[in-house]
Design goal:
Length: about 375
């Protein structure tokens, strides 16, 4: 019975959540032919707008899908340039649809477009938090999407599931709800007989031996069940419970009902941006460390100094995310670098005191400061 009461308590935590990030996938908003389904958007807004006592951030896919029909495209294009063109047309349609739909309840919406670059850099991260927090304080519903129109392959989140997990961490949400076209995580292919829905995931061990399929049924989104489970794992590890279910069960999910799959919190909440650095950033290059520097960074959580660098790889600028690798080529950490790639070769193996004397005071600093460093656990 202890397990049952624990599950009931966890669902109560869901029902009591005040600040909630809700993510909805393209397949839940669009018609099979491509283009927004106004009835589906209205049905979702009907559920969200009824919760006047809650602060809701909506991470919404659907911009590319919404732009297909107006541009005469029969299916989602494969190339980035046409995807971005479709997103440019579709994003306006998507926000206009939400604006009209929430207006039926006297609610305003605000558009927030993010790239992963916006959220691993310290100043951008703070600005994103302040904007979202202010929108919520003013009673508006932030509609968040990846900034597909300008995002390059290097700065893409790749799917809005991961974006939603990171936004939940950014706004210090009490709950993340992932809505798609499947009503939860199953222990096999849901289309086959004999499989059953997994009601609760207490930790990674509950997923051992579970086969998780890929792309969604409708074929208009980028994320499949793999990305949803990964997003749930990121949020749960950051101290945020997650409910994964279908859009038609959104009301029950927000009420803490026994729908979908509930991922229990596995970690403690923290208010830093290092989660973004670990999960949202794409390294632009790498610094290979000597054994002493690996120990200093990994065991003592020290900053990386020039003396500990053995070599440099890739082209990057100061402020970019880079991998820190050991001598065997394993990535042990990720961090924001303070120098351009072309500057680093002449710093390698030298003390900051020597460098400052020879090159000036700007060189008496860390290559990667420990506050801009996150360890990667294998």
């Amino acid at each position: 019975m202890a397990g049952a009461s624990g599950a009931a308590g966890a669902r109560q935590e869901v029902a009591d959540a005040r600040r909630i990030v809700v993510k909805v996938g393209s397949s839940s908003l669009t018609t099979a032919a491509g283009g927004l389904d106004a009835d589906r958007v209205d049905a979702l807004v009907d559920v969200l707008a009824k919760h006047q006592d809650k602060e809701i951030v909506l991470v919404s896919s659907g911009a590319i899908a919404a732009g297909l029909a107006p541009l005469g495209l029969e299916r989602r294009p494969r190339d980035l340039a046409r995807q971005q063109a479709a997103a440019s047309v579709g994003q306006g349609l998507l926000v206009a649809r939400y604006t009209a739909s929430f207006a039926r309840y006297g609610r305003r919406v605000g558009q927030v477009l993010l790239t992963s670059d916006d959220t691993s850099r310290r100043a951008h991260y703070r600005n994103a938090y302040r904007t979202l927090d202010q929108l919520l304080a003013m009673g508006a519903v932030p509609i968040v999407n990846e900034n597909d129109t300008v995002a390059t392959d290097e700065i893409r989140f790749g799917d809005n599931d991961r974006l939603a997990a990171l936004v939940a961490h950014l706004v210090r949400a009490d709950l993340l709800v992932l809505l798609s076209d499947v009503d939860g995580l199953y222990d096999g292919d849901p289309a086959k007989p004999g499989t059953s829905r997994i009601a609760e995931v207490r930790g990674p061990e509950d997923l051992e031996g579970v086969s998780i399929g890929s792309a969604g049924k409708a074929g208009v989104g980028t994320g499949g069940m793999v990305t949803k489970v990964e997003a749930a794992r990121i949020a749960a590890a950051a101290g945020i419970p997650v409910v994964l279910t279908s859009a038609v069960h959104a009301a029950e999910a927000l009420a803490g009902g026994p729908t979908g799959t509930h991922f229990r919190r596995t970690g403690r909440r923290s208010a830093d941006r290092l989660l973004w650095l670990a999960h949202a950033s794409t390294p632009r290059g790498a610094l290979v460390l000597d054994d002493g520097a690996v120990r200093a960074v990994v065991e003592r959580h020290s900053s990386l100094l020039p003396a500990g660098i053995a070599s440099v790889e890739g082209e990057f600028s100061a402020g970019d995310p880079v991998e820190l690798r050991d001598g065997a080529g394993r990535a042990v950490a990720r961090g924001l670098v303070n120098f351009d790639a072309r500057e680093i070769p002449r710093l390698i193996g030298r003390s900051t005191r020597d460098l400052a004397r020879e090159l000036g005071p700007a060189y008496e600093r860390e290559v990667v400061h420990r506050d801009d460093l996150v360890l990667l656990h294998h």
